[in-house]
Structure prediction request, 79 residues.
Amino acid sequence: MDTLKIILQVVLVITSLANVMLVLMHKGKGGGLSDMFGGGMSASVGSSGVAERNLNRITVGFVLVWVLTIVALGLLATI
Prediction:
């Protein structure tokens, strides 16, 4: 059980860091902190809609793995 807990904790850390990076890679919708750091200028250049959709799918996948890992760690804590 201890080995499984350690593996799940490592997966949790990796997916947490990946989620932060993936969310920061998303295009800003305007008028917020993203514009303060140059997001407004990059929005006028335009980016591919396919790339944004793929980034959304990857982000959702990592979030699902993250949630399942938290649930598994919670179930292991009750055993």
User: Anything to note?
Assistant: The chain has four helices and no strands.
